[in-house]
Design goal:
The chain has 92 residues and is an all-alpha fold. 64% of the residues lie in helices and 0% in strands. The chain contains five helices and no strands. Helix 3 runs parallel beside helix 5. The longest helix is centred in the last third of the chain and has 23 residues.
Length: 92
């Protein structure tokens, strides 16, 4: 398989770049380490992770809720990227 040129897939590149900008930054991560679990959940609920937190809050709480919500968000994001990407770049 040859190199994939970004210019050929501008839509996918733009979507990935936009999603990358929504990731938790290093400084946010260090802030989370100083928070109690309730504050972490509240902060996540005010971000891109809201839907994941809301879906899982019925079943989980505390650290389990955070872990499952982050994992669910990762799965949903990966699925979305595969769906919007041309066949040639799905392997990435």
């Amino acid at each position: 398989m040859g190199k994939i040129k970004i210019g050929i897939y501008p839509y996918t590149y733009a979507r990935v770049s936009a999603m990358k900008g929504k990731l938790i930054t290093k400084s946010e991560y260090y802030k989370f380490l100083k928070m109690d679990i309730g504050s972490v959940i509240k902060t996540l609920q005010e971000s891109e992770y809201k839907n994941s937190i809301d879906k899982l809050a019925v079943t989980y709480d505390g650290v389990d809720l955070v872990e499952h919500a982050l994992n669910l968000n990762l799965v949903e994001t990966s699925t979305k990227l595969r769906r919007i990407s041309p066949k040639e770049v799905r392997i990435l």
